[in-house]
Amino acid sequence: MASRQRLERTKILVTGPTSQVALPVTLGLAASNDVWGIARFSDAAARERLEVAGVTCVTTDLATSDFADLPDDFDYVLNFAVAKGSDDDWDHDLSANGESVGLLLAHCRAATAFLHCSSTAVYQHQGPDHELRETDPLGDNHRVMFPTYSLAKIAAEVVARTAAREHEVPTTIARLNVPYGDNGGWPSWHLLFMQSGHPIPVHPERPNRFNPIHEDDILASIPALLAAASVPATIVNWGGEPSSIEDWCEILGELTGLEPRFEETSNTIGAVTVDRTRLLDLAPKPTVPLRDGLRRLIAARHPDLAR
Fold this sequence. Notes:
The chain is α/β, with parallel strands linked by helices.
């Protein structure tokens, strides 16, 4: 198992720093590094929270920017920005998710390493019993909820791989699976369904298994993922211990007294369970147990529901 590492006194660029995943990462890194964040910053309060923590915020639209207004002397670049188009705006989403990666990597080609946060949405759906390896077939498994998401993520990976070779920038492409924590995530949405009495949609191929990973473990694994960056790019699954929607909703019910109800439908994402062999060879094993992480999520976001 890889040992835990730290990033200190480095200059880091984070894209999408106000997002559910990147916000706690950015705040955590800012405690001991010179961190810059780029986003549209439509949420003034989120920007202020970052700036109070010492993050240098630069307003940027990744779909249109050439990054000429940014410095080019970053030690590390963490690309967490994502456009989850729900209206079939392929031109915008391919620009924001794909073209931006190539332009940003070219601009920051002096970086020691580039981490591109991808998604296990890039895999072809293969059911709850198959643990997807990094070499398994890719496909459009998120179309039912986000029409452009899976294919835009695949396109972004291709651009990142090409730019890494073109500019000889060591790169890691990490395919993230169900991030959650104090800043939200899919289980938080399921808790809202439970609170309102609505049934939680689950795919008929049950159990609906994924690999939820807590935001603390995401942050802890970043130094190792950067250290593993290479040319050609390193590709790795990024997730925690396997669990199902049914399981974590039952835990949420035990912690709140709410009762989950499930409704089977093909109009939702089916199971995406990944093989973590490569991840655990490169990065430290996640340490936040699911029950503890969900208890913390409830306390942070729904304290009125906590038992």
